[in-house]
Design goal:
Structural class: mainly beta
Strand order of the largest sheet: 3-2-1-7-6-5-4
Number of strands: 7
Oligomer: single chain
Radius of gyration: 12 Å
Strand content: over 45%
Order of helices and strands: EEEEEEE
Shape: globular
Helix content: under 10%
Mean pLDDT: 76
Length: about 80
C-alpha cells in the first residue's frame, strides 16, 4: 500500500466522457481534486494489488488495478 499512499490518480469511464482526479490520503480517505467527487468514492484501501474504493457508508463500490507512472507522476487506474 505504501506505493500508492499520497499519490494523485485519475480514472474515467471506458469511453472517457467522465474523468475524476483524486489523491489517496494516508488515512484511507479520498481527497477530491477539482470537484466535489461522489459519495460512492470516499474511502480506499489496497488488497491483492488492487485499489478498492468505498462509499461514504464504507460499502465496496469499485476495484481497480493501478499502475504508477513515474514519468508523469500519477497513478492510472482501470477496472
Amino acid at each position: 500500500m505504501a506505493v500508492v499512499v499520497g499519490r494523485y490518480c485519475v480514472f474515467s469511464h471506458k469511453n472517457k466522457q467522465y474523468s475524476r482526479y483524486f489523491r489517496l490520503s494516508p488515512d484511507g480517505q479520498i481527497q477530491d481534486i477539482g470537484g466535489e467527487g461522489h459519495d460512492n468514492e470516499r474511502y480506499w484501501d489496497v488488497e491483492n494489488h488492487q485499489i478498492r474504493l468505498f462509499s461514504k457508508d464504507k460499502q465496496l463500490t469499485a476495484t481497480f488495478t493501478c499502475c504508477y507512472e513515474e514519468e508523469i507522476g500519477r497513478a492510472s487506474c482501470r477496472e
